Hints:
Blueprint: H1 4-19, H2 25-35, H3 45-57, E1 63-66, E2 71-74, H4 81-93, H5 97-105
Antiparallel strand pairs: 1-2
Helix pairs in contact: 1-2, 1-3
Amino acid sequence: xxxxxxxxxxxxxxxxxxxxxxxxKLDILEFVNRGLIEKINNVHxxxxxxxxxxxxxxxxxxxxxxxxxxxxxxxxxxxQWWQNFMKYWVDYIDFPDELMELIDKK
Length: 106
């Protein structure tokens, strides 16, 4: 099961990538640590690396790394991470099919 802190990290990571042009892992880490609501522990770089990997491989986020610009970006300029996030949670929570159809139409 995904934790509340991981959900926050995923949202903050995607926000950092959306807001800044090619943020580095360090940029993302600093953004996440500033933005966490429950600051029980600081997030470590290893957590950010795992989350970035998971975003690409599990959540199907079109996340790429540019060696030239030394940072991350979405390869699909029309990508809106919150839509992907909502579809993941709808699947995870198992909402009725009618609600899924409404979300897919948006």
